[in-house]
Amino acid sequence: MHMDTRSLLAAVGPIALSGPDRRLATQALIALDREFHGLGLKVVVGEDLAEFGRFLGSVGKFLPNAFHQHLKPCRPGDGLAFFALDEDGPVATTGVRLYRFATTTLADHLATLSLFYANPAEQMERGERLIIDGEAEQVASRIDDTAFWEGGMWVRPGWRRHGSDLPTLMGYLANTVALARWGRQTAFSIVEVRHDTDKAIRAARRLYDVEVAAPTIRWRRPRKPERQNMLLVASGPDHIFGQMTKVVSNSNVSKPAAPMPSYALASAGD
What's the CATH number for 5-267? Predict the structure, then answer.
């Protein structure tokens, strides 16, 4: 991995919160640093999304278009990559990318595929379409102004076998840093449903502690015709502050738990 990185606490910069929110975020960042240290891991944060993509490719992980600088460039400072490291290198990753919707909504950007492409008409595959309806459309239509995508989650397979809930802890880490850096925001992503939708919803809520896991998104991609069914997952700022409270209260977020079946859901495009 060849990326300029900073330690977790150094990477946050000035905290874009005030009052009780600021105090809680500060306490959560310190608690998260201790949680990872207790696991024998060091957290580093980088802004080189191209290198983030190269690393994900090296471990066979799909790079979401949100982090693809050719397909959907983002402003400097609007994208962050997180790495949890041991003596052998990365153990887990995730990333966040701030979107600026202005007067439009997440639903608009999903339906037009402009969430994933700077110029959809020129960059998307021939025949590619995204259809959003039901609860997913209702949720996405309420997300406007600014919000951040969280994705690129990867955990070294050995940690999965031991039942570590690092995905939950990495999600808490990304969400806490995002709010500390960008203020009160909503986190969102889409995940692919491999089999049963109800099982995928339960898995998303348990594994990632999201506030909402909403059907239905159908992303038709000619290269992957059999993999269309998606969920919109999202967490508002109050839910994320609840996650921070769990961390500060020394909850069991980093203790071994029963592993989540991998068939239930996957990040879109895996």
Answer: 3.40.630.30
